[in-house]
Specification:
alpha/beta, 7-stranded parallel beta sheet
Length: 394
């Protein structure tokens, strides 16, 4: 009688060149797996291909690795038993018949993005608070930087020690950002939909890049939870200096943060970072909050001669009359790409990047590492990791 795993057909549909080294590794480790690669050219957004993937290529596949391309109907993939996404979320395919009308297990690459995105979060936050645009302008002008306004800004930089990071969505990315923030001397508090009252519930059971994250959930000094507005507002009212948005986009989280939430955060004139999805924020409300802070500081710190009187950051925090948000860093917007005439581009103290915070040389390999972990688990009959809960939307 023959033994060993039965033959598998892995179809890989991705918007970049075939990762041949990774394919060779899979063939060595899993000789029973046949691999077919289809290169799909994308438009300006990675969620939409330039052409339709021929439906017939899905017909014999038992395994699929993809970013967004799926079989048109369940009838087009009668043998498909597992779909692995190279993204952390699946909101972009939530209306697909494969998502809504089948029970094919869906897994994500959640867990791989933490190291790269955490660096982006720190980069953009420090670029804002350390006035990097000013420093770069001095270098471009070959200037040693002797203007008093600029020097006043730099003398009043408040470092991260003692500030509070609020992590809205303490998943793999939030855990790594929290880890780095704590190393910088910040206090970290976390918010999740469900309570984390036991040591087991605080653990990260997904994919973890070795040496990163918060595997046992020990970094937050306080943990908040809930799914209603009152719970969220209670969390936001905890003297947060920097809010990280890292929750998945679902019907419940669309426009989760708007005028009321930004007013609560204005207590500390918080800096807001969004690395999740653009629609989680009401962008009009964000623009208004950024303008409110900027208008107040500028109008109240100009001498009669037109020069600026730079208020120390500590003084700004002590003055509860100052409205709005100090700044924002957005790697995601609504829509994407952001139209050239969108007012968000000109919002004061706002850094915008084109959904690139997770990109890096290790991205593709780590995506496949998650898939390989699940191949091993599937072969042993064990529970898969990073499985999407369709009812929750993530």
């Amino acid at each position: 009688m023959g033994g060993g795993p039965r033959p598998e057909h892995l179809l890989v549909v991705l918007p970049f060149s075939a990762p041949t080294t990774i394919f060779d590794r899979i063939r060595r480790r899993y000789p029973y797996v046949k691999i077919t690669f289809h290169h799909l050219q994308f438009t300006e957004t990675p969620w939409k291909g330039r052409e339709q993937v021929p439906s017939e290529i899905f017909h014999d596949a038992t395994l699929l690795i993809t970013l967004s391309a799926l079989p048109p109907t369940p009838q087009d993939c009668p043998k498909l038993e597992l779909i692995h996404f190279t993204s952390a979320g699946t909101n972009h395919v939530a209306n697909s018949p494969i998502y809504t009308d089948t029970t094919i297990p869906l897994t994500t690459s959640s867990g791989i993005h933490g190291p790269q995105i955490a660096e982006w979060v720190v980069l953009t936050a420090l670029a804002s608070s350390h006035h990097y645009a000013l420093l770069e302008s001095w270098q471009q002008k070959h200037s040693w930087g002797k203007d008093q306004r600029g020097l006043g800004l730099l003398r009043n930089i408040h470092d991260r020690v003692g500030q509070r990071l609020g992590v809205l969505g303490y998943g793999s990315i939030g855990r790594q950002v929290g880890r780095v923030a704590k190393a910088m001397g910040m206090d970290v508090i976390a918010y999740t939909a469900g309570p984390r009252n036991t040591p087991e519930s605080k653990k990260d059971h997904g994919f973890i890049v070795p040496g990163t994250g918060d595997p046992v959930g020990e970094n937050p000094s306080a943990w908040y939870s809930g799914t209603d507005t009152e719970d969220l507002h209670h969390f936001l009212a905890q003297d947060i200096d920097h809010l990280l948005i890292s929750v998945p986009l679902t019907k419940q989280t669309r426009h989760l943060l708007g005028k009321d939430e930004f007013e609560i955060l204005s207590k500390r004139n918080a800096f807001v970072t969004n690395i999740s999805r653009g629609p989680i924020i009401d962008q009009s409300a964000l623009i208004a909050a950024l303008r409110a802070f900027d208008n107040h500081v500028v109008s109240n710190n100009i001498h009669a001669d037109g020069s600026f009187a730079i208020a120390p950051e500590a003084d700004i925090k002590a003055d509860t009359s100052i409205p709005g948000l100090r700044g924002a860093a957005l790697d995601v917007t609504d829509p994407e790409p952001l139209p050239p005439d969108d007012p968000l581009w000109d919002a004061p103290n706002c850094i915008i990047t084109p959904h690139i915070s997770g990109l890096g040389s290790a991205y593709v390999d780590r995506c496949f590492q998650v898939f390989e972990v699940n191949l091993d688990r599937r072969e042993r009959g064990e529970k898969l990791i990073n499985v999407v809960n369709r009812s929750k939307g993530y």
